[in-house]
Amino acid sequence: MNDVRFHFDFVSPYSWLALAESREFAAKHGVRWIARPVVYAKLLEDHGLVGPAETRLKRRYTFHDVLRCAEALGLEFAGVPAHPFRSLEALRTVVLFLEDERAMDLAVAVADAGWGRGQDLTDVDVLASCVEGVGLDAGSLRDRIAAPEIKRALGEITADALELGVFGVPTLEWNGELFWGHDRLAHLAARIAGRLGSPDERAGELLQRPFGVHRRRH
């Protein structure tokens, strides 16, 4: 069994696409997912980046692209009521159950509630319904996800992701190697199967080459 850490934030529709494929992928390629909910905004902030929803043309392209991807995968796509949105409560809900083997099932359910069925993932009642739907206890959910230890755990998981070099979501990590984007699932499968070699040595040599030009940032 291959343990793969699955970094995601529900604010990303690409996290939804990857989560939608996760069960079938795991069964086919002998993978055990380790759910790693992270705060995407924190990743962007620490790396000095902005999300695609914050750039007008990228925002437009993203929704076109996600609609195509969803149709190709046979997924219903309603889209979240507002985007970007505050995903902290949804992320903390998964953190609350990380020690349970159904944590990934919960992540899949939450992502689909928002992106697949158009529900508001800032609504704790929606999150409670997802929790109950996978057979977990949703009692006093609002208070439980507001607990300091849950907030702290989400921050620590996000800090761990930054330490690994994660800058976007979804990012899958296997044996220290990162695969960014739902469209890199095929590369992960090939790497696990030994059909792709490690790029480390070649990439290291390329990264030693100098910059040929520096773009000025305003």
Key attributes of the depicted protein:
10% strand, alpha+beta, 218 residues, globular
Molecular structure report:
The chain is α+β, with helices and mostly antiparallel strands. The chain has a single domain (2-207), classed as Glutaredoxin (3-Layer(aba) Sandwich). Helix content is 52%, strand content 10%. It is built from ten helices and four strands, in the order E-H-E-H-H-H-H-H-H-H-E-E-H-H. The chain has helices at 13-29, 40-47, 56-73, 88-96, 103-116, 124-133, 141-145, 148-164, 185-192, 200-207, and strands at 2-8, 31-37, 171-174, 177-180. A four-stranded mixed sheet has the order 2-1-3-4. Helix 1 (13-29) links the parallel strand 1 and strand 2. Helix 4 (88-96) crosses helix 8 (148-164) and helix 5 (103-116) packs across helix 6. The longest helix is centred in the N-terminal third of the chain and has 18 residues, at 56-73.
Concise account of the structure shown:
With 218 residues, the chain is α+β, with helices and mostly antiparallel strands. Helix content is 52%, strand content 10%.
Name of the CATH class: Alpha Beta
* Uncertain residue ranges: none
Question: Biggest sheet, open or closed, and with what strands and sense?
Answer: 4 strands, mixed
Query: What is the H/E string?
Result: EHEHHHHHHHEEHH
The span between the termini is: 48 Å
Q: Say which CATH homologous superfamily is assigned.
A: Glutaredoxin
Count of helical segments? 10
CATH architecture: 3-Layer(aba) Sandwich
Count structural domains. Answer: 1
Radius of gyration: 18 Å
Can you give the mean pLDDT? 96
